[in-house]
Design goal:
With about 240 residues, the chain is of the alpha/beta class. The protein has nine helices and eight strands. About 35% of the residues lie in helices and about 20% in strands. The two termini are about 20 Å apart.
């Protein structure tokens, strides 16, 4: 694995872990808010999926080893766009896999880029303003404590400026490539109705999977590892 830095159009350096085994396909892994490319779960996923494809796992602005401030999807489409442009120069097939707000961003990117072959959206919100984020529920705080990584936590830099955002529910009909929608039945942060609503409105080839007794985003991987990996690999390959 090699870390690379890519610069966005607005001058932000985006840090990316490039897992290169000379496949002709690449999966771009897009973590959500408060997660990074070097989080344990994303390091594990990257290594597992690297057995089938090259991997580009990114830090969005305001996270990890990227600079800038996180804007909760207002500016981060620039971040994933520069990674997609990098992938276009090197790969025949480009797959996007996003988690939570990262899932919102892969859907937005999928509505803008014709070069995307398939998408996996895990716990994607319909729009930012409707995210439940019930942090007091045990389904929220227990997984958060279990994933506690001090180095990651101190690297997060949110913007305090409220900016206009693109709502995934407003652009989902523009996504043309096959899209897999995954949700956790007990998700306290982005309830599963979000994913179901996006799935129902999407006009692309699509599939919806609900993970019973699972929570949010990368928790699907952590709590139902074998099923998650199989569903994702079956969808992509």
């Amino acid at each position: 694995m090699k870390e690379i830095k890519l610069k966005t159009k607005d001058g932000i350096d985006i840090a990316v872990n490039h897992y290169n085994k000379d496949f002709d396909s690449v999966i771009i892994l897009a973590p959500g808010w408060f997660m990074t490319k070097d989080s344990k779960s994303f390091l594990e996923m990257s290594k597992i999926f690297n057995n089938q494809s090259d991997i580009l796992t990114m830090d969005f602005r305001g996270h990890g080893r990227s600079n800038g401030f996180y804007t909760f999807t207002s500016k981060e489409v620039e971040d994933i766009s520069v990674v997609i442009e990098y992938a276009k120069q090197r790969y025949k097939k480009i797959y996007l896999m996003g988690f939570s707000l990262g899932a919102a961003l892969v859907l937005i990117a999928g509505s803008k880029f014709d070069c995307i072959d398939k998408i996996i959206a895990v716990s994607a919100p319909t729009c930012f303003s409707k995210i439940e984020n019930k942090v007091w529920k045990k389904e929220a705080w227990i997984p958060t404590l279990q994933k506690c990584e001090l180095k990651r936590w101190v690297s997060i830099r949110p913007s305090l400026i409220n900016r206009e955002k693109i709502n995934p529910i407003d652009i989902i009909e523009k996504v043309k490539c096959p899209t897999l929608f995954l949700a956790g039945e007990k998700d306290p942060t982005v309830c599963s109705w979000h994913t179901e609503a996006l799935y129902n409105k999407a006009k692309c080839p699509k599939k919806y999977e609900l993970f019973e007794n699972c929570c949010h985003a990368e928790d699907l991987f952590l709590q139902a590892r074998e099923r998650f990996i199989k569903i994702c690999l079956d969808w992509l390959f």
